[in-house]
Amino acid sequence: MNSAEALSLNPMVAIPAAQMDEFYKNGFSKERIFHGNGSGFGGSFTCTNDISEYTTSDFFTQVGKQFKVMLRLSSTSSQHGTCETYRDTRGYSIRLESEQDGIFDIVGLNVPIQYVIDRKQIKKFHSSQQVNYASGMLENEERWNWFGQNPGSTHNVLMTWGDRGIPKTWRNMNGYGVNTFSFINSEKERYWVKFHFKTMQGNEYMSDEEAQRLSLNYPHYYTKDFYESIRNNNFPKWKMYAQVIPTNNDDLFDFNIFRMNNVWPHSEFPLIELGVVEINNCDYHQWLEIEKMAWSPSNVTQGIGLSPDGGLLDRITTYPLVQKSRLNGVDINPISKHVAKELTTFVDGKLWYRYEKEKTNNSIYRFAKSFYDMIGSEAQDRLSKNLHVALSVVSPRIVEPLLQNFKQVDQKLYEDLIDLRKNNNL
Fold this sequence. Notes:
By secondary structure, the protein is an alpha+beta fold. The chain has a single domain, classed as Catalase HpII,  Chain A, domain 1 (Beta Barrel), CATH 2.40.180.10. Helices cover 37% and strands 19% of the residues. The chain has 14 helices and 12 strands. The protein has helices at residues 3-9, 14-27, 122-129, 140-149, 154-160, 208-217, 221-231, 310-326, 337-348, 351-358, 366-375, 377-391, 396-409, 411-423; strands spanning 38-47, 66-75, 90-98, 102-109, 131-132, 137-138, 175-176, 181-184, 190-199, 237-246, 272-281, 304-305. The strands form 2 sheets. Strands 1, 2, 3, 4, 7, 8, 9, 10, 11 and 12 form a 10-stranded antiparallel sheet that branches. A two-stranded antiparallel ribbon has the order 5-6. Helix 5 (154-160) runs parallel beside helix 11 (366-375) and helix 12 (377-391) packs across helix 14 (411-423). The chain is globular and about 65 Å long. The relative contact order is 0.15.
């Protein structure tokens, strides 16, 4: 009996099918491929500093003015429904809305860097970090093999397998724009800029053991905590900052300031306060509303522009296409004239490619080493333990390149891992 014959015998069978069609057409959207496991909330951004010397943006020039904000927090490589306390980088996507200027999206993370240096590696990176669709399992061998063969990822590996890999709650982690944008002032002068969101609840983390214990009863522990905080009027807050570099200074540095795995030293480029983000509204339907809010780096407003950051320029064009596919053909993030002009400046004008060619990649381990030195001995010991546990289920041929990468960061890190492996007969 085929489906048509079945329907003729029982027309009621057609109702669920019709409902499902309506469900996807007008209701629920497809799940995100990356950052699928997350939740969104609303709130406000209050400008606390007039920086009109750098930008004409409405958001950062009117002290005391409030703007609507939407914030989505997520895990990076896990799918919807998996436990939220899994060790991973976290997504921190924030949307600022102005009646005058429109929407500005920052699609960031809880770390200031990315794993990928070479944009040609993005597809392979994504495949290595997610569930293998052939086996239906997350393959540790694939994940760690990619890290070992791509030493530029070492800095982010140290951050993720260090304390910040499992924040105590979403409220206790920072957010970072990762990409380099630009500010443009009334004189049409351009400044390179990176955005930071510093938690006002304090940075706190948890161990793998505590995370596993919590996930047994509360797989959505972070979401649960966020809802409870808002409903108890304990509104999560972040201070928003910017680091700024005049465009005529970017050739003076011995590292590529546009690489997504490099950081700008705060001692040279101090944080400039912009305002306060307060999240105070949890009355959104996560599937019918939040999942339809397609954050994209292509959403920039006047006074804000692009840069030769190759990762940003890739995302400007790919995010709208991916979102359009996910939202059943709805083009929710069309490229504006402002962004199109910026793309012409940095791509057709070859400025992007000039930086990709001319800037040496001598910073692969430089910032990883700075990070390792900064965290102190106790955090270093926890990092070594976490890495050892993760690598204990990976074959020695894959571990060896990783150990050599860690040796380039610090001899102590390398020796700690060697000792842990010997003591556990690995």
